[in-house]
Specification:
about 325 residues; Tachylectin-2, Chain A; 4-stranded antiparallel sheet; 7 helices; 16 strands; about 30% helix
Length: about 325
């Protein structure tokens, strides 16, 4: 494609005067600089492992409410912002959860959002876990569902869903004991190779984590941001900012299993006493969290590079001829 662009640009330049070429060159340089800046800012040209995607915290009303009052979403531009509670946006979703169910996790798989709902009472397979899918964050806000279905996952009556995430290759469901337990008995993780497997409960693996959650806290979310896993723990009692939400990070899934923590700290997020954390997700694309540049930006960059290449080559040719 770039070769074709260069040929077309070369043909176009052949009909321009030197003054016209210089003027066009200056305009292209300006456009190219803007395109390159936008592309680099989006992370699409750097190949960097830096997380370029925001985080979303889902809060659910403790009491049954109607659409537009039951599910509240808060976004953050970075993990540091989540820690400092520097919110990028916040809004209610139109999702109206059946009074018999509660949110047990939320995940983003690179193209769709998935919300896991768990029955408040112990049910059998095909009735206990309900999954709703959205094609975009805007759809999650407006509750424009792409699909919804029951999973065959049957959660032990002694456990409840505390998180759902996708790490680029597998979905992971975090289950937490309803009663305070010791390390190796309190947090159970179930993995699936695909969303279809999550629906059919075709488990790839399952294991207890050595994470021992303080009796005063409960799991409110699990996510993978492209480089680390993060577990959100929320105080069971209403607390102030800096005491209510505790974040634990792990460099790998194996570390999550062994509870080899990379870091842990309180967030300044202060959750309204009428709401509880129901999910945490990082909007990574499944390729290390990098955001791919938009086609329009990439096209500008290609055109700029092509024009620079042709113009520079011709300019160098004239210099060589002059020296001869």
């Amino acid at each position: 494609m770039c070769t074709l662009l260069m040929k077309k640009i070369a043909a176009f330049q052949a009909h321009l005067s030197l003054a016209e070429k210089k003027m066009l060159f200056k305009k292209l340089i300006a456009s190219f600089t803007i395109a390159l800046t936008v592309g680099l800012g989006a992370g699409g040209l750097t190949g960097s492992n830096a997380i370029a995607a925001p985080f979303v915290v889902l809060l659910e009303s403790n009491a049954n409410m109607g659409a537009g009052q039951e599910v509240f979403l808060v976004t953050y531009n970075s993990y540091a912002d989540l820690i400092s509670n520097n919110q990028a946006s916040s809004t209610f979703s139109q999702l109206n959860i059946n009074a018999s169910y509660s949110v047990g996790g939320m995940a983003y798989d690179g193209s769709q959002f998935h919300v896991l709902l768990e029955s408040n009472v112990n049910m059998g397979a095909g009735q206990e876990v309900f999954l709703i899918t959205y094609n975009s964050y805007a759809d999650l806000i407006s509750n424009n569902q792409a699909s919804s279905t029951f999973s065959q996952l049957n959660i032990n009556a002694s456990y409840s869903a505390g998180g759902l995430t996708y790490d680029g290759s597998q979905f992971h469901v975090l289950l937490e004991s309803n009663a305070n337990m010791g390390a190796g008995q309190e947090v159970f993780l179930v993995s699936y190779n695909s969303y279809a497997d999550l629906i059919s409960n075709n488990q790839a693996s399952s294991a207890f984590s050595q994470l021992n959650i303080n009796a005063s806290y409960s799991a409110g979310g699990l996510t993978y941001d492209g480089s680390q896993f993060h577990v959100l723990l929320e105080s069971n009692a209403n607390m102030g900012a800096g005491q209510e939400v505790f974040m634990v990070s792990y460099d790998s899934y194996a570390d999550l299993i062994s509870n080899n923590q990379a870091s842990s700290t309180f967030s300044q997020l202060n959750i309204n006493a009428s709401y509880s954390a129901g999910g945490l997700t990082a909007l990574n694309t499944g390729n290390g969290g990098n955001v791919v540049s938009e086609p329009a930006t990439m096209m500008l960059v290609l055109i700029g590079l092509s024009f620079l290449s042709v113009f520079t080559r011709r300019k160098d040719g004239r210099c060589c001829q002059a020296r001869i």
